[in-house]
Amino acid sequence: MSAPLIKVDDLSIAYASEEGPLQALRHATLEARAGEAIGIVGESGCGKSTLASALINLLARNAKVTSGGVMFDGRDILSVSDEEKRRLRGRHIAMIFQDPMTSFNPVLTIGEQLVDFQDQREGLSKSEKRQQAAAMLKRVGISDPVRCLDRYVHELSGGMRQRAAIAAALLMAPQVLVADEPTTALDVTMEAQIIHLLRELRRDYNGAIVIVTHHLGVVGELCDRVYVMYAGEVVEEGSTDDVYHQPRHPYTQALIACDPANLHEQTPVLPTIPGRLPDLVNPPMGCSFAARCARAHERCRNEAPDYVEVGPRHWARCHEALS
After folding, report:
1. In degrees to the nearest 10, what's the CA dihedral of 51, 53, 57, 61?
2. Pairing mode, if any, of strands 233-239 and 225-230?
3. Is pLDDT above 90 for 191?
4. Average pLDDT of 294-303?
5. What is the largest CA-CA distance in the chain?
6. What's the predicted TM-score (pTM) here?
């Protein structure tokens, strides 16, 4: 097995707030290898986007790393200088953001920005960089790429904006591509097209792809392995088949049960997970999911569970995972 291109090791991140440090990420781990697509899933507020931002060191100003790091090419990218960050982003690690409308400057054309994104590419003239940009727009399925270069972001449809954002991320052939909710802002038809595009890109792309989403279907379509997050913790990880068909954490089981794709009969009420996420300013001393778990007992409420291996490359953070 090849070494990970990027590795998150025991990473904890807190945000400063009036109530005290909000522990958005707690002892998270993650690995992504070349040629592999991994998914990060969980409901809103569970820490997915914080983990994604850490992978490219784009954390908010009020964020503080309290333990661990993100290792890439033998270095912790969370502790490098600003100049090293600039050299790292785009060329080695790139990101597709959730809202492509805010990923581009509204007063510059798409072409001007895609040329600027290639600033670190030496030996190419501006016209050659523009040709590269047009070729990449064509590669991601924009039918008239030369015309698209002269447009502004507001002149593109939602699907075209997302394709342009994917093209921007791929221009420098990064080793790690992070996609933060890449289909959230799209309708069902556009979502299917973007999933198909990412599947094609994955076939041709030899880097690691990290897809952050709340949509279980996207992960099922695209990913080899999946990390399930809850209340800032990774509560289960394993191959997509293992996690979807043999989930060992009650939260993973509840997420899958709530997926409309798993409903086989008409129902007037969609299934939900009762309760709400715990307060991460004062996180519970035991299992973070205990208050919402039908299987919880006294030990769950008072003792934090270990992260145990429940199968080959399959782990879960639950006292009952091995039972």
Report:
1. -110
2. antiparallel
3. no
4. 93
5. 67
6. 0.91
141 within 8 A of 176, measured Cβ to Cβ: no
Reference 51, options 201, 215, 227; nearest CA is 227
CA distance 254 to 266: 19
The amino acid that residue 250 corresponds to is P
Query: How is residue 270 written in tokens?
Result: 């969609």
DSSP secondary structure string, 194-214? HHHHHHHHHHH--SEEEEE-S
Q: Residue 1 pLDDT more than 70?
A: no
168, 113 Cβ separation under 8 angstroms: yes
Walk me through the domains of the chain, giving residue ranges and CATH numbers.
6-92+174-276 (3.40.50.300), 107-173 (no CATH)
Residue with tokens 């291109």: 5
Are 172 and 94 spatial neighbours (Cβ–Cβ below 8 Å)? yes
Minimum mean pLDDT range among 120-129, 196-205, 269-278: 196-205
Q: How far is CA 20 from CA 17, 38, 145, 165, in A?
A: 5, 33, 49, 36
Q: Per-residue pLDDT for 310 more than 80?
A: yes
What does the alpha-carbon distance between residue 241 and residue 282 come to, in Å, rounded to a whole number?
35
Please state, as a whole number, how many other Cβ atoms lie within 10 Å of the Cβ of residue 60.
12
pLDDT band at 185 (very low <50, low <70, confident <90, very high): low
Contact criterion met (CB below 8 Å) for 52 and 210:
yes
Tokens found for residue 184? 């959230």
- Extended beta strands in the chain, E state: 6-15, 22-32, 37-41, 63-72, 75-76, 93-96, 176-180, 208-212, 225-230, 233-239, 307-311, 314-317
CA–CA distance, 316 with 227 (Å, rounded to integer):
10
User: How far apart are alpha carbons 187 and 183 in whole angstroms?
Assistant: 8
Q: Could you give the CA distance from residue 59 to residue 19 in angstroms, rounded to a whole number? A: 20
Q: How far apart are alpha carbons 321 and 305 in whole angstroms?
A: 10
